[in-house]
Amino acid sequence: MRLTTPFRLLIGVCGLAAAAVAIAGAARAGHDARPAGDGAPRIATLRSLVVQYRAVTWTWERAAHTRALPTSYSERRSTDRAYLEWTVDRWMRRAWRARAAAVRRLERRFAVELPGAPGLRAPVSARLSYSRALALRLRRIYPGSVPRRYVRSRPAGPSAALRLWQERSAVAALQVALHAVTRPAVPSWLQRAFLCIHGFEGAWDANTGNGYYGGLQMDAGFMSRYGASYLRRWGTADNWPVWAQIAAAAAAYRSGRGFSPWPNTAQACGLP
Asked: Which residue in 181, 222, 266, 267 could disulfide with 271, CB within 3.0 to 4.6 Å?
């Protein structure tokens, strides 16, 4: 099975085996595999699916900073179709759990809300939609942009599209875990103050066209002065993670401005 160039490069850097995500477990392995003469997946195909699921599991585990699950590479020696299908299913479940752990960790670390995952055996369309949404959201965290050609990729058929976007979501998660900027420290009392102000200002993703953005309603000058790196990375504040919006507000506070950019809402919160 041919892997995309970004994934090959990443796996080369990470020292992993070639990886992509298969879309079916033992009960569905034949849906993604070229059938043998009797309609069952070939032994070589089942082996390749084991390799793919295992490598993707390890990628998600790296993103979660957890130890890689061990393997005996028994699929290399086995010609038992039932055993290989069982092994495919086993690594599929492991990949599913590793992804969930990685997503939880990234959400906590960057104070972002990532898309909710469908079930392990959800329809292809649901898993494709989720994997695509997850990959794009992670790309907006790091490197902060999503090229048009990346978004418009259209492999032939839903199975190929699902493999592509599952692959990309795993790669994107690892890139975020390794390279994205961690949130700066903001005292808990100051965080609580800005959370109160936010309650009177707007949604964290607010962009109503009035020139103010995000949960603390920042204008262009404020974003440029106190959140320039976030502005370059994500665009206007309605696209920033919550921690970045609070960090920019805290930078303004520390600069000597205090809560003056929010005179009415700060007063409503009882802030000086």
From this structure: 266
